[in-house]
Design brief:
This protein has helices at 26-41, 126-139, 150-183; strands at 46-48, 58-61, 71-80, 85-92, 95-105, 107-113, 119-125. With 185 residues, the chain is an alpha+beta fold. Strands 1-2-3-6-7 form a five-stranded antiparallel sheet. It binds nickel (II) ion (NI). Nickel (II) ion (NI) is lined by residues 92-94, 134, 138.
């Protein structure tokens, strides 16, 4: 198991369209396990492979508070079952600390494959419907901030770039401190 680095907006790699999974092997299972570990550690409730720079149609999710119902969706197809859209305040591990309302169809059908390549379908509403549509967007190179006004999106971009600069300033400082304390008697 390993924690994977999560790409953050506006990283252009998040715009890559994911290709379908064709091989269901140990490497795919390992990637799914690593994605679960990364998602739980973040913490988050859903993660698309695109967010960890693996551009295949793989989504992991766990909507429970106890983190005991891991769900995997491979090559998913999502079909709205209603024209009714409901707003939900969404967040994203690739856009940390930003939350905003997005309207999406409230009920959908999901057709997908599991890690063995076995097809399954289910009807979803509530949080599952929101989350699967959010993750599907990732596979398509889309982010929830794309639904917001250009002004809001620009503010978020600036916030993310500032955050990135702060993080990169902190990193060398931390290394310096570690080195200094390691060499001190
Ligand atoms: Ni997301």
């Amino acid at each position: 198991m390993a924690l994977l680095p999560i790409l953050s907006f506006p990283d252009p790699r998040l715009r890559t369209k994911a290709r379908p999974v064709t091989v269901f092997d140990a490497a795919l299972r390992q990637l799914a396990n690593d994605m679960f570990e990364t998602m739980y550690a973040a913490p988050g409730i859903g993660l698309a492979a695109s967010q960890v720079d693996q551009h295949i149609q793989l989504i992991v999710m766990d909507l429970t508070e106890d983190k005991n119902q891991p769900q995997v969706f491979i090559n998913p197809v999502v079909t709205p079952l209603t024209e009714d859209c409901v707003p939900y305040e969404e967040g994203c591990l690739s856009v940390p600390e930003v939350f905003d309302k997005v309207d999406r169809p409230s009920r959908v059908r999901i057709d997908a494959l599991d890690l063995d390549g076995t097809p399954f379908s289910l009807e979803a509403d509530g949080l599952l419907a929101v989350c699967i549509q959010h993750e599907m967007d990732h596979l398509d190179g889309k982010l929830f901030v794309d639904y917001l006004s250009p002004l809001k999106k620009q503010r978020i971009r600036e916030k993310m770039q500032k955050r990135e600069r702060q993080l990169s300033r902190q990193k060398p400082a931390a290394t310096e401190n570690t080195r200094r304390s390691a060499s001190s008697p």
